[in-house]
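Batch manifest, entry 17 of 40.
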Amino acid sequence: MTDPLRAALAAHHPADAEEAADLERIRTLVDTEAGPWSRHVPLHLTASALVVQPSTGDVLLRWHAKQERWLQVGGHGDPGETDPWVIALREAKEETGLTDLRPWPQEEPALFQVTVVPVVEAKGEPAHEHADLRYLLATDRPGDVPAEVEGVPLRWCSIDEALTLADPGLERLLRNYAAVR
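Output type: structure tokens
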């Protein structure tokens, strides 16, 4: 049986030298760490998704209080989860309330971007890094998104507006999305 994590990483083509270096760090993590999804590892895997509205190009952002910034949806795998696509899709559904999410721009899920991002110390966790495996997800029902889910604000933005809110990691994701749109 094929390991979906290794298969996703093997199939991914980095957009630039920075992403290629991050991909190499992530492959090393997966090859050397027995629990690469564990929060107890200083560099550990997460999975996320940029939710897009294909007809307008708008993107959905979620306020992340811990990071104090607007980001794409996503997070940690639950115990036993190892497939980044499954984790990204589950997190996106939980964090947006959308039930019609699908891979975009192709019909089959594929990593869109990989990156290593610093995470600040908060809520008793020391500073650490996320090796984030990112997908694009589309919805045809953007009006189904509530203003917030579980008290966390959500907002639709044009790419230009999102760029004004973005940290460097999200900015790279948004620029890569704009290039394929």
